[in-house]
Amino acid sequence: MDWLTAATYNIHQCVGVDERHDPDRVARVILELDARVIGLQEVSSGASTGSLTRGVEYLAEATGFKAVPGPTMLRGDSYYGNALLSGFPVAGVRHIDLSVRGREPRGAIDAVLDVQGDAVHVVVTHLGLNRAERRAQVRRLTEFLHREGDEMTIVLGDTNEWLPLSRSLVPLEQCFGKAPAPCTYPSRRPILALDRIWVRPREAFSSMCVHKTSLSRIASDHLPLKARVTVVRSTP
Prior knowledge:
Layout: E1 3-10, H1 23-33, E2 37-44, H2 52-63, E3 66-75, E4 78-86, E5 90-97, E6 107-115, E7 118-126, H3 131-147, E8 153-158, H4 170-176, E9 195-200, E10 205-210, H5 216-219, E11 225-230
Parallel strand pairs: 1-2, 7-8
Antiparallel strand pairs: 1-11, 2-4, 3-4, 5-6, 6-7, 8-9, 10-11
Helix pairs in contact: 1-2
């Protein structure tokens, strides 16, 4: 394989803009994406399942992907956080704590995928609502990514950055290059570029688009964002 499609999708706990909780509808949007790597935000287990792992497993079973849960907090008797769905074997997983004191707990998943013998790091995250919080989280995340050297990396995230001239994301842009930022929120009439995809090395990035369909416009308050990425072969 010379390329893959990766996507990021804030599923809003599977509650659509019609206020209906419908995991099956979200699963159908995921299948529409025709992507092999999908980062999810706002994944909730639901009170009936009792664990985020079970909530992610439902989407994995419905779509045929392997699931990597990344819970960040407990809400009553359900877990909430990020998740990764992968069509490739998962060779390793680390969890990065991005929590800032006094704010909602946040984190990132760093998974190593075996893409037909090549190692690809995929990072899934959801940054905070406060600008100073986001700056601290981006600094921590980029410090972590710098330690991984030049390995191929894809970052999939809801950045919660709605100000076009904000400098909160500059460290990520210095690390990965400036990524296209099409609008994904709100899903029915998107005007804010909250969701982003970065790829390293920069030349591996091929194209990006917002997934707009009748189903995706109603299944969540965010539209999915997806990118076509050229797989950079590992050096022997």
